[in-house]
Write the structure tokens for this entry.
Amino acid sequence: MGDQQRIDKWLWATRIFKTRSIAADACKKGRISLNGRTLKPASMISVGDVLKVRKPPITFSFEVLALLNSRVGPKQVENYLRNVTPKSEYEVLELQKISGNVGRQKGTGRPTKKERRDLDQFIHDKSSPDWFLDDWEYDDPEDEEDEEDVFGDDDWDTLWQ
């Protein structure tokens, strides 16, 4: 095994990233650092190093306890790394979860699930032929006989000529 290992392989083997290529991409994007220096995928790490892994919105900190050649099960991960992420970073994550999608202005972008359900409900309600009658008083044709005729037949003829 040796006393050093590639960072992308270690990140994948300890299940910090799902695939080795995702771990390498994170390195290329500058999201992995050691002592303030961003690491490339082929950078070597050793036991005792403290890595900072930025997975927005928070930055995790992991201490390397041991090196390994192949991916390990989730229960064995604790033998190879120690999570030394400060509690303040987890508070940022909780605030992010609570706030939801507050940053998105209403009406911009795709509708949220709730907005889509509301829209579907609105369209469904308005698809019935008598939806507009709910807001208006219905005039019964039989009641017209009782009402006075404002215009006589002569007046209608003059209006429509």
User: Anything to note?
Assistant: Helices lie at 7-13, 20-28, 87-99, 113-126, 153-159. The beta strands are 5-6, 32-34, 37-38, 44-45, 50-55, 58-64, 81-83. Residues 4 and 46 are 5 Å apart (CA to CA).
